[in-house]
Amino acid sequence: AKQQGRSQYQFYSPEINTQLQERLTLENELHGALERNEMLVYYQPLIDLHSGHITAMEALVRWQHPTLGMISPAKFIPIAEANGAIVQIGEWVLRTACAQNRAWQLAGFTPIRISVNLSARQFEQPYLVEVINQILEETGLQASDLELEVTESFLMGDIERSVKTLKQLRELGIWLALDDFGTGYSSLNYLKRFPVNMLKIDRSFVQDVMSNPDSAAVTNAIIALAKSLRLSITAEGVETQEQLDYLRMQGCDEGQGFYFSCPVPADIIAPMLQKTSQQ
Ligand code: C2E
Ligand code: CA
Ligand code: CA
Ligand code: CA
């Protein structure tokens, strides 16, 4: 009864109304957004904390709305998940990102991985593996130059099926990363069954690793866990030199965050990449 009272109150709240209206607008306009060329892919580098070299780029989608401006994926991905538009958008991001990585290779840059986020709805698609394989063929990118980021929360839905899909992707030669590690269900029992190659420590731990001993303890434990499972470990959300030094000292392999670069369009990435052979 308490909850019902609350939701009735919220129904008349003008603030909630505005939020609802915005959500409805986004939901209605999401379907045509790809056709109208309003989606963009930004890229953020992942850095090897020992050599300082770029090892990968994470593809992050943006929606350039004609009147509302740049819309964050944190806002529209959940809506796209709910109404199914994510399947088409996710496939477009994959194709765009693979084609971009191939274009960087053809331009003579040292090969790096391109890392693409998969959503729950996409992961459940019966033809996911075929679709990905076809995108690799179309774009000419090798499977070993692609990495897919998945989260525990959606792998935990149907574990047998998740393990099977992950294995098929691994067999193609694609790298697999567990994203936002430490936030989801974190069932260590299942972790060893998921054939993933790396863990990405969630930004929330990295953010206050210098000021909060609990976050430092969780970070250290995740790094130790990754080492003992022989998984590579990436820290997300590295913003300061102190965080970088700390993570490097703890044995973290890779880092990503505003300290190195925020996500940017492809043409801004190119000058950051290294030529394979210097003339
Ligand atoms: P994520 O996969 O955890 O991506 C990392 C997010 O952290 C990105 O936000 C990135 O801009 C942000 N970030 C990176 N470094 C820093 C830092 O140093 N400090 C802070 N404060 N933030 C940092 P973004 O681009 O807004 O994406 C948000 C989320 O939306 C992503 O979180 C991911 O879950 C989802 N997403 C983005 N692109 C896609 C996509 O193509 N497909 C799917 N399914 N999800 C996507
Ligand atoms: Ca990610
Ligand atoms: Ca993440
Ligand atoms: Ca996240």
Task: Write structural notes for this entry.
Helix 3 (73-83) packs across helix 4 (85-106) and helix 4 packs parallel to helix 6 (128-139). Helix 12 links the parallel strand 8 and strand 9. The mean pLDDT is 92. The chain has an 8-stranded mixed barrel, surrounded by 4 helices. The protein has helices at residues 2-11, 14-33, 73-83, 85-106, 120-123, 128-139, 152-155, 159-172, 188-191, 203-207, 213-228, 241-249, 266-269; strands spanning 39-48, 54-65, 69-71, 113-117, 146-151, 175-181, 198-201, 232-235, 254-255. The chain is 48% helix and 19% strand. Ligand C2E is lined by residues 44, 60-61, 72-74, 77, 90, 93, 117, 119, 179-180, 203, 236-239, 256-258, 263.
Alpha-carbon Rg, integer: 20 Å
Mean pLDDT: 92
User: How large is the share of residues in beta strands?
Assistant: 15-25%
Shape: globular
List the ligand species: ligand C2E, calcium ion
Strand order of the largest sheet: 1-2-4-5-6-7-8-9
Point out poorly predicted stretches: none
| Category by helix and strand content | alpha/beta
Secondary-structure element pattern, one letter each: HHEEEHHEHHEHHEHEHHEHEH
Specify the helix fraction band: 40-55%
Biggest beta sheet attributes: 8 strands, mixed, barrel
Q: Ends: how far apart?
A: 74 Å
